[in-house]
Amino acid sequence: MKEITISPVTRIEGHAGVRIYLNDQGQVDSAHFQVVELRGFEKFLIGASIGEAPRITPRICGICPSAHHLAAAKATDQIFGVEPPATGKKLRELLSIGQFIHSHALHFFMLAAPDFILGHDAPAETRNVIGLARHSPDLAKKAIAVRKFGQRLTEAVGGKPIHPSNALPGGMSTALTEGKRAELATMANEALGIAREGWDLARGLLDGVDMEFGAVTTGFLGMANNGVYSTYEGPAMMLGPDGGQLGSFSGQDYTNFIEEYSEDWSYLKFARFKGGDYYRVGPLARLNIVQKMGTEHADAALAEYRERFGTVTQATLAYNLARYIEFIASCERAVQLLSDPGITGSDIRTPVGAVVNRRGVGIIEAPRGTLIHDYSVDENGIIERCNLIVATCQNNYGMDRGVEDMARRVVENGALTDGAANRIEMIIRAYDPCISCATHAIGRMPLKIECVRRT
């Protein structure tokens, strides 16, 4: 048995592994994306008050806490039978946008860009954010500035830059002051300027890249509001592999359309459409689904993107460019909301009383894809059952099959070079997986790639 280990694999959120099995000729027999960490939040939420869910679930992850915060809050709205007022909804959307800006800026500029700007075969010691900062210091400074805005926006609306707490059943707990709105509006316009300027770089990053790398054919799932890109409201739309519409859902009916399952090589759950079709979520899926982004500059970028890739694309590496278009749209939408006089209104919460419904399902778009929070409670609002379906689980099939496709391309005579290993990582990295969200890890578990020769 031959074993090749790469540890650590960098520039993903969390820890996972890739296991490649070789036949006697040193060729790839099979390969899998593997996660063997503990998933615990669904269990220890049981027994807690449903009103605590929006405050507990942001602790799942420090990268995308706002998505869990808002999905849980939307579920509690249903359980208490309330609808947040217009200003409360706008603040929730603004909180979601803040997370998209800082998360997408982090991934695009700091995690993905080194592969394309410095080269996927560049030495590992320079193929990272430090190497990128040395190579393109102005770019690194702008990336930090725009990510700072995302964090400041999250802090102002959510109460804290990490693990926000202001969303609660019926709306929000704290209004946005006029002074803070004006400050954020200035930052939003600066961020939009950076995003627009960066499009010239982003549009060319995939030039000369083989878009068949990590090939996988799936359906897609993502939220749209009357065909317009949305992160907070609208039904989750389902597309088949050919781009045909398969249906939509918006709440408890999701169980009629998707199902979870497991495989023996990973603790990380998988998801698929009922009927057996596999699907993916996230930026690639959302851009395949929407008719338009709904903002000027993002719509122009989407037109260029579709001229190159078509209305529906299966190309895994296109996730990187789709993510940047969402980044532009998020900056534009932040400018719009922060220019809206109603954003500082005081009517931000509908009062809640007793439990009205024993089950609530909150669905929202997280930066990495569709997020579902499903809670069942007793008559006193104590959680009896909890199920969380996160984007990384829904992309698990795509990552798993993409890893095998790339392994077959780059493993030669049982050997895996550093550059070849990084190409495998690039497929995983394109999805921007959040292993913490998907598994809720305990302890330190380094990601490694192993090649194993079967005897």
Automatic annotation (TrEMBL):
Origin: domain of life: Archaea
Chain residues that bind Ni(2+): 61, 64, 434
Cofactor: Ni(2+); Fe cation
UniProt keyword list: Iron, Magnesium, Metal-binding, Nickel, Oxidoreductase
Amino acids binding Fe cation: 64, 437
Pfam families assigned to the protein according to its UniProt record, in alphabetical order: NiFeSe_Hases
InterPro entries recorded: Ni-dep_hyd_lsu, Ni-dep_hyd_lsu_Ni_BS, NiFe-Hase_large
PANTHER family: COENZYME F420 HYDROGENASE, SUBUNIT ALPHA, F420-NON-REDUCING HYDROGENASE VHU SUBUNIT A
Stated name of the protein: Ni/Fe hydrogenase subunit alpha
Annotated organism of origin: Methanoculleus submarinus
